[in-house]
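Section 5: illustrative case.
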């Protein structure tokens, strides 16, 4: 553990006023943001797909492999103890980060997708039968649709969909009407990746809990934009991915209420998830290990812990106010371009801006912007039902994080004018 303490990396600027983000200083922490692409300074606006990583996370990962690497929970030797300590320390950081009651409620997965599949598979296997219903919304990412469709196919249950309005907001009155004794779970996205809508999760939980229905929240897009308190949200499951919150790829988290996790059967079988194995009968390990079969992503987990350290050192108050400023600036700039139509204009929005340009396919927009060094995402963003609802084949999406600047939005706008002129 001494090695670990010496490796602590100090981030943030103690001289910066409390409520103002020192963006130049922050950008210096992200080596990739200084890269040039096609001869231009990179403008990275594809953060909803995956965020960039601060030097502290990158260094933490290389230090792990250089100095601390071993398998966990298995060895009596020094390095195994060190790696186990770092891994479990990361679990504790996650617990505090989302204010879970216990570390037993923090399951490491490969990402949001695996976390949702875990619940669909094991909670579903135990509680869902023919005639039952699962409720999702029309703005879900495919990873919060398809696992439930698979479950419905296997069990004969039905998937119900909360409709959205033209702004891209949930119709809660319709949701209320859907809740019944047949509903076995509500699975809802916290922040839509293609619309930016922030859903009223507390209200949804309150409505579902009034009928004793558990709620899973897909937090893939929310964990990096604001502080999460699963107890205040009241949700029963909360899923997120490390790579969207400055951490490594291949690591994610499923938070689950202990009583529910305890009653669920294991997800995968293998090493570490068992207490005793014999050919007559196998018994399972305690939480959270019951759901972590095999050698996990140790480096990724530890890296996720460093990402949390970094986010906390910056502080969500500063992050939120900077990102709101960017969102308003981008909205104003884009709505002033007559050929541009915003897709997703919810009253509660995170810093994600989807748009279409008259007569230009989103892929052309993305390709031309890329020539200017501007990275956005184009396509259906794994939310094809959202595209169908808005009757567009695809959108262009710019998504901002706290390390982005107004100047980068100016570059985006300049690039959009370039696209419009080219297709005139
Ligand atoms: N959205 C995007 O560009 P994974 O792939 O498991 O880390 O995350 C899946 C996922 C689940 N829910 C939401 C709301 C998401 O946005 C994502 C990932 C990326 O929008 C890649 S499709």
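Designed sequence:
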């Amino acid at each position: 553990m001494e090695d670990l303490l010496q490796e602590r990396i100090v981030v943030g600027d103690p001289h910066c006023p409390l409520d103002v983000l020192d963006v130049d200083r922050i950008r210096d922490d992200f080596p990739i943001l200084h890269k040039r692409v096609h001869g231009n300074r990179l403008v990275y606006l594809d953060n909803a797909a995956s965020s960039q990583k601060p030097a502290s996370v990158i260094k933490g990962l290389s230090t792990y492999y250089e100095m601390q690497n071993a398998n966990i929970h298995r060895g009596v030797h020094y390095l195994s103890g060190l790696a186990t300590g770092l891994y479990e320390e990361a679990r504790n950081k996650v617990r505090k980060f989302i204010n879970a009651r216990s570390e037993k409620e923090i399951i490491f997965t490969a990402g949001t997708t695996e976390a949702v599949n875990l619940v669909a598979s094991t909670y579903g296997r135990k509680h869902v039968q023919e005639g039952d219903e699962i409720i999702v919304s029309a703005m879900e990412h495919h990873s919060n649709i398809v696992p439930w469709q698979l479950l419905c196919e296997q069990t004969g249950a039905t998937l119900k969909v909360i409709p959205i309005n033209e702004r891209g907001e949930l119709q809660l009155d319709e949701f209320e009407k859907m809740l019944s004794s047949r509903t076995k779970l509500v699975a809802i996205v916290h922040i839509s990746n293609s619309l930016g809508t922030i859903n009223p999760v507390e209200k949804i939980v309150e409505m579902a809990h009034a009928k004793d229905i558990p709620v899973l929240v897909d937090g893939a897009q929310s964990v990096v934009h604001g502080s999460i308190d699963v107890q205040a949200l009241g949700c029963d499951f909360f899923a997120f991915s490390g790579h969207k919150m400055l951490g490594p790829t291949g690591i994610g988290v499923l938070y689950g209420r202990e009583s529910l996790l305890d009653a669920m059967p294991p997800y995968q079988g293998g090493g570490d998830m068992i207490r005793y194995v014999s050919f007559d009968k196998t018994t399972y390990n305690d939480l959270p290990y019951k759901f972590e079969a095999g050698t996990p992503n140790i480096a990724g987990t530890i890296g996720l812990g460093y990402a949390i350290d970094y986010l906390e050192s910056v502080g969500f108050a500063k992050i939120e106010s900077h990102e709101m400023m960017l969102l308003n600036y981008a909205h104003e700039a884009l709505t002033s371009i007559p050929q541009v139509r915003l897709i997703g204009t919810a009253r509660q929005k995170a810093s994600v801006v989807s748009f279409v340009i008259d007569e230009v396919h989103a892929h052309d927009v993305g390709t031309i912007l890329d020539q200017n060094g501007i990275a956005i995402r184009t396509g259906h963003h794994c939310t094809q039902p959202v595209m169908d609802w808005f009757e567009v084949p695809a959108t262009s999406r710019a998504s901002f994080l706290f390390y982005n600047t107004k100047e980068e939005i100016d570059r985006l706008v300049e690039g959009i004018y370039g696209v419009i002129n080219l297709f005139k």
